[in-house]
Amino acid sequence: MQVTEINADGLKRDFKVVVPAGQLETRMQAKLAEIARTAALPGFRPGKVPPGILRKKYGPAIMGEVLETAVNEGTGKAITDGGLRPAMAPKVEIISFAEGADLEFSVAVEVLPEIKIMDFSSVALVRDKAQVPDSEVDDALANIASRNESSEPVKRASKDGDVVVIDFVGKKDGVAFPGGTAQGYSLKLGSNTFIPGFEAQLVGKKAGAEAVVEVTFPEGYGNEDLAGKPATFDVTVKEVRAPKAAEIDDELAKSVGLESLDALKTAIRDEIARSLDGISRMRLKRALLDVLAANHDFPVPPTMFQQEFDHIWKQVEEDKAAGRLDASDAGKSDDELKAEYQALAERRVRLGLLLADVGRVNNITVTQEDLNRGIMMEARNYPGQEHMVLQYYQKNQEALENLRAPLYEEKVIDFIIELAKITDKDVSVEELRRDPDLAVSAEASDEAPAKPKKKAAAKKKTAEE
């Protein structure tokens, strides 16, 4: 087997590989001999089939295996002998092959760049920190109390926010329709639970009142017989109930699964603190990545760059078609937008390669414990469905690998932060939350960033947040 480098241009390497016909034939004969020991064809005893017949029957399939093996070995030899670290899977193209002739094929490889990693101890950053205000804990308690409100009967006319207990019969053209009847139904006025216009016609009614409510079903209503059609509801108001907020006490805490009001306050404070810490970390990470980008300049593999740009541009085009394009981009031409997003794509790829190299050089790995912790963080985003989330990751290896990438990046970021000089700075909650993009990212619990839906969001993807 002869491997010849025919081109070395930047990060691209091209090779020509020639596998002699004799070597291919030797492997062919070895495979045929292996099959001959047990082959059984009509008219022949097992192991006694003539070589010519075996070759005619099995030759094409065997030659396919021989060629695949030869191509894999030739490609591996080109990479190993050259001491290359491929950035992508090599591209192989058969140049020529015929039975009895040499196999010639080309191998195109894009290699990872050589990266000179900066001294992280020279990095100096400021980390904004904010304390949890008591007012936010009080607001959260009030919201919980509101969500757990009850109601009590009142002897007055109903108003928005009240609950009316009603009997009703829905009619179309004077005839009751299926599913339009109920008794003792509790309806909160102003909740927009029923058809538009229904609830407003019950404002100002007292217990015992009767009313004919006239409505028109929406065009997109699920029942085609009613969609877009007028209807009436004969309604009897059985009771008017005023909302009553839950008391902020131990009983409220027990209703949400905690033993006391103090425990509930602690849980709320801890949750807000986690959110603020997430924003703080995201700000620090963004500043760190800016420093890394400014201090590392190396070429990026063309195919990796193109794939990243294509990914971004596809989302930009979808946003443009849906009218979601960021206002700052709206007046720009495609050429101007492409230039901006090409720079973004190059930065992302470069930072991703840098972080991967830092992790490789320093033997940073994602352990099973890291994965378990990441899965639990994901599960927290789906209250009540935690078990389903755990099962999803247990059964879906691809999803598990997708979770591994951002966890790996975060471990590398942590490693760099440990070496850098970090100065904490106390700021107000308002100042910390001033950047809405960072706040959204932090609330996502450092999850792998989504596709760019606008330019600001695009700049927060993995290795760019």
Automatic annotation (TrEMBL):
Bias type Basic residues, positions: 451-465
GO MF annotation: an example: protein folding chaperone
GO cellular component: cytoplasm
Keyword Acetylation: no
Domain of life assignment: Bacteria
Any one Gene Ontology BP term: protein unfolding
Domain PPIase FKBP-type intervals: 161-246
Family: Belongs to the FKBP-type PPIase family. Tig subfamily.
Domain observations: Consists of 3 domains; the N-terminus binds the ribosome, the middle domain has PPIase activity, while the C-terminus has intrinsic chaperone activity on its own.
Name assigned to this protein: Trigger factor
Organism of provenance: Paramagnetospirillum marisnigri
Gene: tig
